Amino acid sequence: MANKPAPRNWNDIQVVIATGSMALALVLWNLFAGPDRASALKHAQEQAVLSPPQPVQEAAPVVVEVQPTLPTGPILLGGNAPQTQIIVQTGGKGGGGGNGGGGGGAPVTSTGSS
Which one, of 45, 43, 114, lies nearest residue 85 by Cα? Predict the structure, then answer.
């Protein structure tokens, strides 16, 4: 008994559409770029036949130092970096619970930023 061909799924259809659209884009590109390519080649040959450009004397560049202006209003995006706060809490010397429950006494340290 012959195997039945697998049905087309949506991915196959998308690949066919993408391939066709790329091929069509290349065909249209070459169709419309052909006349422009010929005129560009003709224009380049005309420019090459003309006399070479005259040498231009270069003047010394003028250096003007500009001082940046500082904003006078509030800085909305920026400013000081957030400061880190360290909070140390000391707990009582509570007794431990049964079955190896923890004992107290060590300070608890937590950090945060504002």
Answer: 114
Q: If you search the block for the tokens 């061909």, which residue do you land on? A: 5
Q: Please write the tens of the pLDDT for every residue from 20-63.
A: 999 999 999 888 887 777 788 888 888 877 756 666 777 666 66
Separation CA 53–CA 42 (nearest Å):
19
**Of 81, 90, 92, whose CA–CA distance to 114 is shortest?**
81
| Nearest Cα residue to 104 out of 38, 96, 112 | 96
Q: What are the helix (H) ranges across the chain?
A: 10-49
Longest Cα separation, the chain? 103
How many residues are there in the chain? Answer: 114
CA–CA separation, 91 and 106 (whole Å): 7
| Residue whose entry in the numeric block shows the structure tokens 């422009």 | 36
CA distance 8 to 13: 7
What is the reported pLDDT for 30?
85
